[in-house]
Design a protein that fits this description.
The protein is mainly α and 215 residues long. It contains ten helices and no strands. This is MmgE/PrpD N-terminal domain-containing protein. Keywords: Membrane, Transmembrane, Transmembrane helix.
């Protein structure tokens, strides 16, 4: 049982993050993140999902969609959240429980990124993450078969996260402590979560600066 509200900590980070607050080392990582996304866009099963996500972001952001620094800042907020949730979950999520990380924590990260993009407060972002977590799922059974479900998992996180964010904006509430809740995300997916090592003391340690493309 966790003693802190780590969901709100991540939500506050997403809510307060600006381009000026990003460490210089992260600017070297963001292009790698973008490059790593491109192959997923080109996969036939994922491209329609990406297209619908892009259209949704354009519609809710207005003014032709997000641009420049706003997009990179939201991207950083999402990836930092995704990386920290993944680290808190530990590899046992996949190795022991059989869940695929991109489709269990991806939508929480997207919900946080949308919140940053639209300048929401931390409470709304935490609620959006709570809504998003209710859509978490996806199994690694593809590892022992020739199934193609692995390829669609990363693509599903985008629209699920956007949907959760839009529902939160419309007044649908999610558990604001979804990560550390005794019946929440980490309880469900990880047999040995490491809350304090990865979700506490958010600054100045940025996990996103260690992201590498998976070749």
């Amino acid at each position: 049982m966790a003693s802190g509200n780590y969901t709100m900590d991540l939500a506050r980070l997403a809510a307060s993050l600006t381009s000026k607050a990003l460490p210089k080392s992260l600017y070297g990582t963001l292009p790698i993140i973008v490059i790593d996304i491109i192959p997923a866009m080109l996969i036939g099963m994922v491209k329609p999902v990406y297209k619908s996500s892009t259209e949704a972001l354009t519609n809710i952001h207005g003014n032709g969609g997000p641009h420049g620094e706003d997009f990179l800042t939201a991207l950083a907020a999402g990836y930092e959240g995704c990386a920290r949730i993944g680290l808190a979950s530990c590899s046992s999520v996949e190795d022991e429980r059989g869940f695929h990380n991109p489709i269990i924590n991806g939508q929480l990260a997207v919900a946080a990124a949308v919140g940053n993009l639209l300048s929401w407060d931390a409470a709304t972002i935490a609620s959006a993450m709570g809504v998003a977590a209710s859509s978490s799922g996806g199994l690694v059974a593809f590892q022992t078969t020739d199934a193609k479900t692995k390829q669609i998992h990363p693509g599903h996180g985008g629209p699920l996260g956007i949907e959760a964010a839009l529902m939160a904006r419309a007044g649908v509430t999610g558990s604001p402590n979804i990560l550390e809740n005794e019946m929440g995300f980490l309880h469900a997916f990880s047999p040995e979560p490491t809350y304090t090592q990865t979700l506490a003391s958010l600054r100045p340690w940025w996990t996103s600066t260690t992201v590498l493309p998976k070749l």
